[in-house]
Amino acid sequence: MQAVRYDGLEMPPKKRLPENIVQDFAEWVKMGAPDPRTEPLKVVKKAPQEPLWSLKPISDSKPPKVKNTAWPRQSLDAFILAKIEQNGLQPAPDADAATLKRRLSFDLIGLPPQKSEIRNLESEIDSLLSSPHFGEKWGRHWLDVARYAESNGNDGLSRNPSFPHAWRYRDYVIRAFNEDLPYDRFIAEQIAGDLLPADSSAQRDRQLIATGLLALGAKPAKAMNENFEMDVIADQINVIGSGILGLSIGCARCHDHKSDPIPTRDYYALAGIFKSSETMWGAAAHQGLTAPQTPLHELQAASKLLPRAELEPIIKANPPHRPPAKPSFSYKADAPLAMGVRDAKKIEDCKLNIDGESKKLGAAIHARRLEHQKTHPHHRPQPHLSDGLTQRRCAMALASPASPTRCRNHPRYDALCHRRSQSAARERFTHPASRCAHQ
Ligand code: HEC
Fold first, then answer.
1. Residue whose CA is closest, atom 43 of ligand 1?
2. Whole-angstrom Cα distance, residue 367 to residue 385?
3. Is the whole model's pTM more than 0.70, yes or no?
4. What is the pLDDT of residues 181-217, one digit of tens each?
């Protein structure tokens, strides 16, 4: 109505509508903007689409037929050669040893080779794989997926508060790659590390730090934002969806997805899991208007920062632009701290937010159940929330979970690991990067 009244926006742009027509519009909106058409709506039938790659079960693809059968040394090569041949090209000649060494070095550790002499290829690869730089190079790719940053980014009020404890998560990721932590375990720790049993304080610390995945990410300012809590949850759902499930879910915050089977009910089923979790990002600001301070995980065995005495001169020499936020929570002196999540005090289902508005509430959606989309062409019976979102990457992620009884029935964990596809269970996944490197 503002637009047709030329109040801020001007619609139609060329000339204002006559006043009586503007009045008609106002009247019609007052009536609830009814649609006067009486004929039944036409249903547009779309040809069935290929399911998204991430929704297809894992299968063993047969290597394609190639003309030059002498070139492939292993089945993977046949896939590459087939494309080369399709384009009427020839493979380039094999690289000489020095070039190969240089490529390997850049690929595996992101750095040029140090010495030019060449040992045998296998020991060359082994030494690159065991280099600490391997985790830095390949962990960085995961850190991108995890939207890792050491600050919040603009909170909407032009402030970019820092996350001084985020580095612990960064180091966790690097270590996970260097220690070849299996992918399923890597994912499980980041989603539910706080719920997994631990044999030592060091392991417990590591798992708590892993949940930092869910606490990173930009927090909007809270002032004048009724949707703050649901915005934080939206960020968590986005990183799980896009980063782990290979499927964006975020649009279902406000409306059903049009062409993949994700209704808003699924979104709020998942949201219930995160609503029942407490997100701990620490101090994200200096003033009261932005994201409020939360507690942090207090670690037990993790290394402390430099001793206070060593730190003081550094702080003095680099005074902050603004005084740091006053801590609202107290910890043991010099306690190592980490961002992360833990169970909220209250475990509750999330209500549907109509149009994504957290004040316009609909029915509560059980945090574990999916609403079936039986009409969808690729519908498969999906009795659990996990199944609705279980597709390739998720199934892979939790193919062989050392699923501890304590969290087996916990919705946050359960949501992502309940059912495993048989085909995924056949393979034990380690990091894709190290798998490639070993092949
Ligand atoms: C914060 C809430 C919200 C989110 C999140 C959201 N939308 Fe929307 N979207 C709406 C609303 C409300 C409408 C209806 C607007 C109207 O009626 O004019 C709409 C309408 C649409 C339409 C037009 C539908 C039609 O039938 O004409 C499309 C397409 C669409 N959105 C796609 C998306 C996609 C893709 C995403 C995710 C990237 C997304 N939306 C995320 C609120 C949202």
1. 254
2. 8
3. yes
4. 988 789 889 988 888 889 999 999 999 999 999 999 9
